[in-house]
Amino acid sequence: MSIELAVERGVATVTISQPAKKNAISLAMREQLWTVFEGLAENDEVRAVILTGAGDDFCSGMDVDTMGTGDVAWSLTKMRRLQRIARAIASLKKPTIAAVNGVCVGVGWSYALACDIVIASETARFAQIFRNVGLTPDGGAVWQLRQQIGAMRAKEIVYSGRKVGVDEALALGLVLEKVESGRLLERAQEMAESFCAAPTLALGMAKRQFDLASSASFDQFLEFEFAMQPVMSRTEDHVEGVTAFKDKRPPSFKGK
Fold first, then answer.
1. Residue 35 burial (10 A CB sphere; 0-12, 13-18, 19+)
2. Engineered SS bond to 141: which of 137, 158, 192, 236, CB 3.0-4.6 Å?
């Protein structure tokens, strides 16, 4: 059981790997997952990230063998570690894609929701199963669901703990594309490579704009935008983009 990392052509693929338990995340894997995403934030060679699960499933949440152990202080420590993973995924200033096969429940779904884009195979099924073990959602799931589908639909999914199939998730906008299971990673790689060809700094700043848009007033947002665009206008990628436009050729962005 581990978190696996592979980097190819600027795309990092992070795989949650404990197939015997549908890729449930153990305590040790929490540390690994956080460390991997923190490292990706500092790796300029990586310009897009895919998060997926080994075998037939994405992630069945936290490993139940580690639940209900220790005192309150230990439970708080575990929560901090769990939440910093969600922060590391959501705050990564590079495009992130969750490639979901099979089971995607509990905090596994939280981590998929923390990605910019979710694509899923026909076998994907999602659920906020916390109610079944007497817990509230974690990993930022309620915040993400409310932002994406509104409070009423999010409450029904959380309160019921029911399964959400891939077609419903697609209709709700929780999944961008439904892909044949055998093509899931291939499609994720295609999408990630298209993002790698884009100006990485500009996409990272656009991602920050989306974050700000959820809490800022329109006037506040425009002030943030006002500060961002002049910085982008001084990047090498902006110069390359303008030059390529004038030369009537495709731009070659370097992420600088």
1. middle
2. 137
